[in-house]
Amino acid sequence: EKGRVATDLAQRELNELLESPYWDMVQDSEGYQLMKQKTTSDFCIFKSSFETNKNAQSVFEYLNTITNTRRWGKNVKSIVKKHEEHDLRILYVQFKSTFPLSAREVVLAERFFEKEGNYYILGRSIEAPEVPMEKHCVRGFLRMHAYQVIPLEEQKCKVNYIIDMDPAGNMTPKLKEKFERNIADNLKSNFTLSS
């Protein structure tokens, strides 16, 4: 139940962010865009968009495969499915440590569905006292991670990805921004590597 509440909240926030005019362009090249938006806190939200010559449903299925650790970036150590029912699952994701920082981990609810011809994967952290924190890890808070896959033609689609995460712990705002940006910036390489 708490997983569905969390992903419902993520869906409402996603709709607002996709329509927001306050994105600042960071990179724009070869059908790929990376944008960021400053929030009222010290954090930025990142959005990446990429057009690929692939069928929208096959892209959705590729992104929806939890063994595909690349969708979270090259610094992912492991993804463990804790529970799944219908269109909702609970995941534990651990990121590798990068000196001098400790490893990060998140426990999130993730929902995957089709709506009005588009495909979505929405995730948000949940309280999970039943999942003990790993030794030497810092538990971050994922406000949102969301994929939107939009069919353009039979063999072409656009993918939007939004990441809003507080890695927590003793990280400067600059390092936190870099942590998020690396995840968002992974979108293009996902499809370059999967070709």
TrEMBL record:
GO cellular component: cytoplasm
UniProt source species: Fabrea salina
Protein name stated in the entry: START domain-containing protein
Coiled-coil features, chain-numbered ranges: none
One MF annotation (Gene Ontology) recorded for this entry: lipid binding
Occurrences of domain START (ranges): 19-185
Classification of source organism: Eukaryota, Sar, Alveolata, Ciliophora, Postciliodesmatophora
Pfam families: START (PF01852)
